Amino acid sequence: xxxxxxxxxxxxxxxxxxxxxxxxxxxxxxxxxxxxxxxxxxxxxxxxxxxxxxxxxxxxxxxxxxxxxxxxxxxxxxxxxxxxxxxxxxxxxxxxxxxxxxxxxxxxxxxxxxxxxxxxxxxxxxxxxxxxxxxxxxxxxxxxxxxxxxxxxxxxxxxxxxxxxxxxxxxxxxxxxxxxxxxxxxxxxxxxxxxxxxxxxxxxxxxxxxxxxxxxxxxxxxxxxxxxxxxxxxxxxxxxxxxxxxxxxxxxxxxxxxxxxxxxxxxxxxxxxxxxxxx
Length: 279
Prior knowledge:
By secondary structure, this protein is of the alpha/beta class. About 40% of the residues lie in helices and about 15% in strands. The protein starts with 7 loop residues before the first strand and ends in an 18-residue tail after the last helix.
């Protein structure tokens, strides 16, 4: 299990992915995203997660270009947006993202949503397979995919996704999806693991945080990692970025892990992937 901020999990193709990363959803392009990423890299983070729809790929690329951390030590993820589902559209979207990022290769490329109403995610996945085979991206995966969406990819395509990034937090622990991913060696990754602050008043988490002399955010992030889930909490404040990374000097006891697991209510913050079709 993770020993420090740069500890990694090994994806099923052998690529190493950090357990902890910085998410930049809703971080403004320009100085805000540049400063956030620089603060994260100085703290020791080595994974940055963005997406085409976030509108800040250029800022992410600028930060990577200005840091003294070698490019090969940084794991960069971006995602193809819903408007670009389809084989040719996805390939073109990748080129556009790479131009904005200013990178020669990408570490992880994800399909952002399955968008089942359009019925093109299998075709889109085949574009990602090409990018992977061509060596332009080190790993490929999906985001917000349920088990039945993953089954469709596995039955119609050559490569099993390496990662599935989903909404995941103590009130929505995605047990079915997590079990499916474990069975197929797909690494689960949590977006919005802190439920956008919606868990900070939870009495059970408060009690556990006090027991370990940690913040609720640190308890949740540690819970993610101990459940075998990569996590990418977002912050633009350097002290919070550092605090979110201070989770490698303790371990949550099994009895407390079970208390956190028991908080699950299957409560989504965001849309059901079967229904979300915004382009």
